[in-house]
Amino acid sequence: MRQELPGQVTELIPFGVFVQVADGIEGLVHLRELAWTPVETPSDVVEVGDKITVVVTEIDRERRRLALSRRQGSSAGV
């Protein structure tokens, strides 16, 4: 099982949200990874400042990017 991390939503963009999982470390939760049900815009599910649980699905060390998922966590029943 992948490790779940607490995070805080820092920015909403048309195709997902950025979530801070540690000081200076943010990742992207793509729109399709926000909830099991279809989501048209991130604001349908979360707002800036919301605390959510995410799972790291991909680490791109070269580009220093994290791909995150809310759907794959245990509290994803949105």
Protein described:
The protein is mainly β and 78 residues long. It has a single domain (4-69), classed as OB fold (Dihydrolipoamide Acetyltransferase, E2P) (Beta Barrel). Helix content is 0%, strand content 49%. The chain is built from no helices and five strands. It has strands spanning 4-13, 16-22, 25-30, 51-60, 65-69. A five-stranded mixed barrel has the order 1-2-3-5-4. The chain is globular, with a radius of gyration of 11 Å. The two termini are 20 Å apart.
How do the strands and helices of this protein lay out in sequence?
Layout: E1 4-13, E2 16-22, E3 25-30, E4 51-60, E5 65-69
Can you describe this structure in just a few lines?
With 78 residues, the protein is mostly beta strands. The protein has no helices and 5 strands.
The helix/strand order is: EEEEE
Number of helical elements: 0
Rg measurement, Å:
11 Å
Question: What is the percent of helical residues?
Answer: under 10%
Rounded to the nearest angstrom, the distance between the terminal CA atoms is 20 Å
